[in-house]
Amino acid sequence: MGDAVVITSGKGGVGKTTAVANLGTALAAMGRSTVVVDADIGLRNLDVVMGLENRIVYDLVDVIEGYCRPKQALVRDKRVEGLYLLPAAQTRDKTAVTPQQMRALIQKLKEEFEFVLIDSPAGIEHGFRSAVAGADQAIIITTPEIAAVRDADRIIGLLESERLPEPQLLINRIRPAMVRRGDMMDIEDVVEILAIPLLGIIPEDETVVISTNRGEPVVLMSNSRAGRAFRNIACRLLGEEVPVERLQDSPGLLERLRRMVRFHDA
Amino acid sequence: MLDLIARFFGRQSGGSKQLAKERLRLVLVHDRASVSPHFLNMLKADLLQVMNKYLEIDEATTRIMLSRQGNSIALLASIPIKRIRRNLQFPHAQTDG
Asked: Which of A69, A126, A152, B2 has the maximum number of C-beta atoms within 10 A of its C-beta?
């Protein structure tokens, strides 16, 4: 029986879908059979981030309404052995799936896969409730910004009533230079405020945008800092003790000089 | 110019994170108290239980709320007292019997 993990945030745009795509890909690359589930009904996203949008036949709502079997709706990722996507419906809305139906579906997937990663919609309404319903554990993702942290705090409060173990925290899009300047909240600041265990950090990294443009999860790029961070997080999900990376992308002297010159040109 | 040099060497220049932390701290006190509808009720029940040892309180008209005053949040309570209890048992009196 596999483990179902929901990745949620409250606020939109903090990196839920990117995290699900990358953690799913990393886990599968480490030999764990994994299905990533897009629970954002009506706003299908995970398929394009993973580059699988052209191969969708059925979707999650088709499965739930019995138009097809779960296996028929799963899209196999050809790049990584043992990685599958269950896409969201695009033509329906969030009320198409009840928490009970979701729980039953996730249960079925857990019988086939070692990991079921669920991409939750933003918000705290029906869609969030359904996405969380079948999960065994939750990961909260936030950026070090005031609005994202506030919404994360709200989600943590709501999860308390879901009978899940204490959620774990991912802090995304950290910019070390700004942290050093005192213009961005640090890892310790966010962890202290939200008071849940830290699962990992992901630095702000242009390679994430590039990989999303290409539809290739950044964990498949060997020289990407964000990719490395996601691989480390996947290891921690498997119970390995990997220390949290230190913030040290400090640009070299040359790069700083170059930036200054560019600054004065502008 | 000095500022530029400081920035060049990566010295602290901003400090807006302190502002963010402070604003977040205040807003979360409010959020956490108002999101959980039971929070203030439970606090009120516990407070009344303790105060009942010393005072006879009009529970029906007791009011408890959070109030924001500038840079801090205060717990405001209006607790009408009917009477102060006479037969108060002090700890040393109890042990002596």
From this structure: A152
CB contact under 8 A, B28 and A193: yes
CATH code, domain with A155? 3.40.50.300
Counting the structural domains of chain B, the total is 1
Closest in A150, A182, A186 to B31, CB measured: A150
Q: Give the sheet arrangement for strand A3-8, strand by strand.
A: A75-76, A83-86, A34-38, A115-119, A3-8, A137-142, A168-174, A198-203
Give B25's contacts in chain A (Cβ within 8 Å).
193
- Nearest Cα of chain A lies from the Cα of B42 at a distance, in angstroms, of 16
Quickly state the pLDDT bin for B97 (edges 50, 70, 90): very low
How many domains would you assign to chain A? 1
Cβ-nearest to A182 among B14, B25, B35: B14
pLDDT at position B3, please? 54
CA dist A258 and A189 (Å) reads 32
Q: Do A183 and B14 touch (CB under 8 A)?
A: yes
Residues A139-160, mean pLDDT to the nearest whole number? 96
Chain B nearest C-alpha distance from A133 (Å): 20
**Chosen from A156, A160, A174, A185 to mutate, greatest number of chain B CBs within 10 A:** A185
Whole-number pLDDT of residue B2: 56
Evaluate whether residue B23 is within a structural domain. Answer: no
Q: Which domain covers residue A41, as residue numbers?
A: 3-265
For residue A165, how many other CB atoms are within 10 A of its CB?
9
Q: Name the residue range of residue B72's domain.
A: 38-97
Q: Is B1's pLDDT higher than 80?
A: no
pLDDT > 80? residue B34: no
| Residue A213, pLDDT score | 96
A128's CB contacts (< 8 A; 6+ apart) are: A8, A120, A121, A122, A155, A158
